[in-house]
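Please check the following for our workbook:

***
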Amino acid sequence: MDLSVTSTELTTDAAISTSASAATGASVFIPTPGTPYQEDIARYWDREARPVNLRLGDVDGLYHHHYGIGDIDRTALGDADDSTYEKKLIAELHRLESAQAELLLDHLGPIERDNTLVDAGCGRGGSMVMAHQRFGCEVEGVTLSAKQASFANRRAHELGIEDHVHARVCDMLGTPFETGQIAASWNNESSMYVDLHDLFAEHARILAAGGRYVTITGCWNPRYGQPSKWVSQINAHFECNIHSRREYLRAMADNRLVPQAVIDLTAATLPYWGLRATSPLVTGIEEAFINSYKDGSFQYLLIAADRV
């Protein structure tokens, strides 16, 4: 498929030591004010345990919280009547998930081993592990969910990379990283939980001059007029606030992030959703994604921008 460029609960009064995190999977808590909405989101993800996230991660130990891109390998799936078909289907969905993360990493630019990267909204840490495996550098993750951060740190410990990959409970709008010290940063399907101007201001603060920011996100299409009923269903399902494509580009421009690539991944993600809709891991939101992508009201984009 052509992917060419087309243009829980938030805890505020506790701190867990860094030394404990490696051994137990506990995360470092960064005290933040915490709005009621942030607390709701933290609570949502602390309680989340969807099989679609866990069973796909069990395939190879990379636990993602995003969707997939690319064509289905029908040969790998085999016959639907075969007793191993479900296992193969889950493995194929996971392959498409990891292909999405690989594409994001492809757009980070040249990364050195002594660089530090930041995954804003890191989930259970799959993309952080992939980034370290590819570049050999430090990768810091932030999430509002203590459960996710603990899972990610435990997994890093199991892989023996806890000295290089770690997650902390932290508001992505106010991270503890020093100004201008981060080589590259990203949001992978996590930017719909925050105000974009505040988010990009923080990325612009922590990134070094010339540093790269990448996001992969669903956004509503301004040409549709307003968010469609399908987009509204997605918002309600995930308790988020999906932004428009125009809002992303405007907020980047206002915060010294200059897009270098804009890739429309809408057609590339539809095979994933079609396959997932036939799987035993359906969550009930598949129809909204498929219909909104097909009617043009929703788009799946990658935007890579440089800090100037």
